[in-house]
Amino acid sequence: MHSALSILNTISSYAAVANIRYPILIEGTKSWCEALVESYFMTQELESKCVELYGELKIASLTPLSIKSGLKKLGQESDFLIIDISDEFNANAINAICGTVIGGGLVFFIQSTDSKLSLVVKRWLKNFEHLAVCLKESESSYVLPQIPPLNQPIVHTSMYRSLDQEKAVHGIMKVVTGHAKRPLVMTADRGRGKSSAIGIAIAELAITRKLTIGITAPQRASVDEIFMHAERIALLNNLKVSIQKNQLTINETQIIYIAPDELLRVSKNLDLLCVDEAAAIPAPMLLSLIEQYSRMVFSTTINGYEGTGRGFEIKFKKQLAQLRPSYRVIEMKQPIRWNMNDPLELWLSSVFLLNHMDDTSSSLEDISSLSIDFSSLLISDLLDNTDLAQSLFSLLVSAHYQTSPNDWLSLLMDPTLSCWVGIEKDSKRLLCCTLLSKEGELDNDLINDIQYGRRRPKGHLAPVSLTQTLCIDEPALQTSIRVMRIAVAVGYQHNGIGSQFMKAIEDYYSTKGIDYLSTSFGSTAELNNFWNSLGFKFVRLGISKDKASGTHSLLAVKPLSNKADAWLPVAIDYFKTSFPEQLMSTFSSLNHHETHSLLMGVSNIEPIKPLMEKRINIFIEGGLGFELIQFELRQFVLSNLSTFASLTNQQIEVVITKVIQVQDWSLVVAQCDLVGRKNAERTLRESIKAMVYNLQCKS
Fold first, then answer.
1. Annotated binding residue at 526?
2. For residue 92, which of 313, 410, 388 has the smallest C-alpha distance?
3. pLDDT per residue as tens digits for the range 555-594
4. Domain boundary residue among 332, 352, 370?
5. Which domain holds residue 284?
6. Binding residue per annotation — 337?
7. Is 168 annotated as a binding residue?
8. Domain end: 313, 332, 351, which one?
9. Any binding-site annotation on 7?
10. Where are the beta strands (DSSP E) in 182-303?
11. pLDDT band at residue 357 using 50, 70 and 90 as cut-offs
């Protein structure tokens, strides 16, 4: 048995020899915790070490930092961290700063006896105490943990810090030197050196070539590490380097940061485009980039604090294979800052549910034979069953790129959130899950302030947006259940399970006094069609695109009570009248698939009058130019959207871009892959003729 200080010194020696890191959980009075950590540092040579303190602790001469500042530490390195979790437990930030700790380092998690940490979080952390070194003031002696099995040591040269990184650098360079249209996809857990590999490869290419290289990422800060490593390698090779805002020049090679939406809006002449943290950018956006740029590298974290990569693995690669069947994959497994079997990485992955496993099981051929139990989970169910919790979180991550460990903590701590699951009764397999938020029941004064733009309370997304948009009180006075996330296991999708799941949720809350269901999601044709098929009514499409997703947020509702039925016509009428108008201005650049799916929420505008019908018939037979009948055509199309079923995809695109979005003929020709304006006009007349014929057949 050993004292707390002797344990720390021994563990520190273990870590240094094995090039691994340890999580140290310290519990006791604040003064005892501070004294123990300070005593440890007095025994260490800290002259060249980086020690960072997060939280309200007084240890030596260290300056406390806010935990949120840890999110800006990507790419940096530290030797020791002291994190006070007594008052704040920010999962994303903790994961980010722990990723900076190099092998041989320790991370101290301090929980004082006056801790304000949520009881459920304390209970959750207890499940993983066996994976950390726990030192408690209430105990007088401690047992040393076992040393984990060690793998090959890290290869560390001035250029590469692992064999995987060297392989990745050569792979990136081959994208430029090899055949076009053979993109590279690099995946790895955190700390494997993906971003630095891109920087090294860029500098290597700049030695002998004059290139224009684009770098993009969901956030500008994400590319700093790429620029830093490119500059470092360039200087090692005595290359000329100059730095400007968003641009690095090495010899005659320009490396430029360009935002994802800018790349799509204005085509750039690039010799190489590198996408860092690609999983945080929606697949449709990435696929558009693929069609526009012939030499691309995608780099992304699979299991990390971002919590996004597994959905990327499942969805994007499948779609990429159709566009670029010769794409290549490199998986970087070896860490560059620490050794394999790292205790800190194991603890973080377990606590924050980052051990996402691939779904290798296939779906049953006969979905109808499945017996699925749909039910609401209690928080205690998740606290007591870490395997279920991991399965649940993995499923959410596979379906939603923005799901992060902080979402898991919110589910544990926020009483307004609840979780439903669908479990196959025989196999006990988790097939689907959803996160729900109870919202509404706001007071009149607050509602008035919301409508006049003076306040916007958190946690009530749907009621606030509805009352602000429609300028009526009822949606905010009433109670809503908002579907925040919904996911179905990959092998079981497109078989009606999601619809059955939502029906079970709807039936349950219809008897619990809930007035309406709501949801807000990134608008895509597939998702819009899904929610429309469930009877949800579209109310509002967000004006601005989400910077990370590149999509507009769509708000949809479904009434459950007579009270909600009373105001629903106001919502439907608002979307029916405003959205078609917005398609001529704000949303004129929406692709035709998404536009078509959104227009399904717009029914008959008004009946076509006899004279208008005659003018349309003259138009389809070659008389009257488009400009002379533009208004009638628009009314006709919006009143008869169901007839789109009789059109080809190209015809639908022509009708939407020209008649509904009122684009210039030149844009219609280019976008619809037509040959000249005459071809476009002929296609439009044929499309309208097919719609008219379809109506006549129905009558």
1. yes
2. 410
3. 999 999 999 999 999 999 999 999 999 999 999 989 899 9
4. 332
5. 163-332
6. yes
7. no
8. 332
9. no
10. 184-188, 212-216, 241-244, 247-250, 253-257, 272-276, 296-301
11. low
